[in-house]
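pinned: reference chain
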Amino acid sequence: MNIRKVNIYIAFKLPAAWLCGVRLKEITQKHALTTVSYKWINQNPFQSMYFAVQSMAAELSTGSLVMQAIRESKKEISMLVLNHKGSFYKKAVGRITFTCEDGLKLEEVIQKTFNDNEPKTCWMKSIGRNERGEIVSEFDFEWTLKSKI
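pinned: its structure tokens
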């Protein structure tokens, strides 16, 4: 996937994420990195980043891996978040980087989805770290994948 094209897609299809500063920075078959920086538009009353903005950045790190895996499979598969959980450990200030390293597990799930013609789910974790490398938050997203055929 082309990072620039994904960020343009965010601007037009997810304008709230774009305005809050959520950006895809790196993607491979194994992992994806997204960033967001604390600023006026994404603050909460406690002088840190609003939890929903962190969730958007974390979801993008998992969702971009799902989109990439579907594209590479050349199969018609729909994707949707079914559930998510979030945990918060420190105030999110400065630049926060979310990393998901669950890309390799998607190949098997996509193949099963297509072979069985039954919806499958896949939990993926994204960890948010501040500029010091400290974990500020963790999110788990349950993606549901369903063959369109």
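why pinned: The CA atoms of residues 30 and 104 lie 5 Å apart. The first strand starts at residue 23 and ends at 27.
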